[in-house]
Amino acid sequence: MGLPRRTQLTDQLDALTVALDGSGDDLPAILAVLVADLTAAISSFSGLVMTVTAGSQPLAVDVMISRVAATSLLLPLRTAPGDRLVLYAQNPGAFVDLAADAERIPGFGTSVVLDRHLPPPTASDSRRLLNDLAERSAVDQAIGFLVDQGYPPGQAHPELLRRATTTGVSITTMARRIVSRPGGPRRPAS
């Protein structure tokens, strides 16, 4: 029982760290320790989904050891409204003590949700989450390139959108084109 597909998880966490402007420190190491601790403490632990807000969009990373879950525990994260950690286990009642302890933490109280049997993400959901992270990362990188090229921060996103619309491609496709150009994007001559 280790982290499934370490490369895919590392890619998700790296994209999340970029989306959080590098404020995530070493997310792969932090999450690996959390999963190891939960696996040691809860014999039927089957995985977790962490959702955090980066900018204005929620981003999720999942570590599912098993897709079988009979119980769940939702814990709010104090980073932003809607940020949360959902734990899954195969044995009913596996989180009863943890939920009781978490409810005593100031600020958590009724935000802790036990045994709502929230379904863990399916494989297709995981791919969608990975795609969302990769798309968000490409757009953010393209905006960064545009700012580096002299566009004011407030005009970089509209410029990216204008270029995508003008060429008839999605904003993600245009962002990937900008990021992949040798030397980055070029500002049009005035």
TrEMBL record:
The molecular function terms of the Gene Ontology recorded here are: RNA binding
InterPro entries per UniProt? ANTAR
Q: Which domain of life is it from?
A: Bacteria
Q: Which residues form the ANTAR domain?
A: 125-179
Q: Can you name this protein?
A: ANTAR domain-containing protein
Q: Which organism is it from?
A: Nakamurella flavida
